Each structure stands twice: as structure tokens, then as C-alpha cells.
Amino acid sequence: MRRSIKSSRVAASRLAVAIVVAAVIVVVAAVSFLYLIPRGPTEISLTAQEFGFNQPSGGPTIRIKSGEQVKIVLVNRGGMDHEFMIVKNVESFHSELDKKVMELQGMGMSMEEIMESEELEMLHHKYVVMDVLTVNGVKESEVEVEPGERKEFFLTLTEPGTYYYVCAEVVGVFPHSHIDRGMWGVIEVTQ
Ligand SMILES: [Cu+2]
User: Fold this and answer.
1) CA-based angle 99:184:70, to the nearest 5?
2) How far is the CA of 137 from the centre of ligand 1 (A)?
3) Lower Cβ count inside 10 Å, N or C end of the chain?
4) Same domain, yes or no: 17 and 48
5) Domain residue limits at 21
6) pLDDT digit string, tens, across residues 110-129
7) Structural domain count of the chain
């Protein structure tokens, strides 16, 4: 009798130990899940089409923290090449793009020549926020997607403020830039 009381006490204490161990495992797992396992960056999916991102015109507003790295997944479901770049002054950029394309067309240049021209590159340098995109570990200022193509890359903006993501491809007839046809959206960067 005394023996069975003793063995049931042993069984009870073993059960108590097992419960404590299980509880510790649950707490450690919960803490690891909440705090210790690194979270991936916020992912933003953008589908480019004629002439908008995720919608027929315009694009969703992106809200990020300064210095935060976000992952952009850009898919081209349109029938034209599209691109993604960041500018501060979207109004001036697209109006100057239109003027420049008209000027170069007036000089007899083809659209291919205009798109490859130094003048357009200089305009990009004037307005585009450079080297804020990371594509396969390399800093870039723009990402291009052909019809049906999908690209993943990272975006980091360190200065708080309002930015715009745009597609600055150009076409032969006015309005020349895809921005002017609706391919742009706002990025709000907060501290
Ligand atoms: Cu475009």
C-alpha cells in the first residue's frame, strides 16, 4: 500500500515536470516566433498595364518608413515595355519629358533614337532618385519589365517625404510619357 502511494506520487511529480517542460517549450516557441525569427521585408505587388499599376490608371499609395527596405514584385501584364523608377517632382518631369520628345521628334529622330538619346538620360539624371532600387544585389535607378515579365527587387528611401513611382517610357504621340497617361503612384516616406 505504502509502495503504491509512493509510485503514484512519483507518477504525479513526473507529470508535473512534463507539464512544466511542455509549458516552457510553448513559451520559448512563442517568444521566438514573435521576436527572434527575422521578419522578411514588406512585400508590395505591382502589376503594370496600359496605363497604370494594379488599376487602369494611377497606382496604389505606398507608405513606408525612412530607411525601411521593402520588396517590390513587379509584373507586366500589358502589351508594352514598362518600367519602375522613383522621382520627387513628377509634374516637372513628365512635362519636360513631353517637351524633350517633341523637340527631338522635330529634329527628325525616331522614337528608338529618342529613347536611347543622351538628352533623355540627362532628364532622368535631373529628376530620378538614383540608386534606391536593389536588383540582384546591385543598386539601380530603374527596373524595366517586358510584356509577361516578372521582377523582384528592393526599395529603400532614407529621406522622409513624398515621392512618386513612375513609368517613364515614351511613345510617339502626345502625351508622350506613360506617366502622363496614368502610370504613376505616390510613395509616402515617414520617419
Ligand atoms: Cu509604362
Assistant:
1) 135
2) 24
3) N
4) no
5) 1-37
6) 999 999 999 999 999 999 99
7) 2
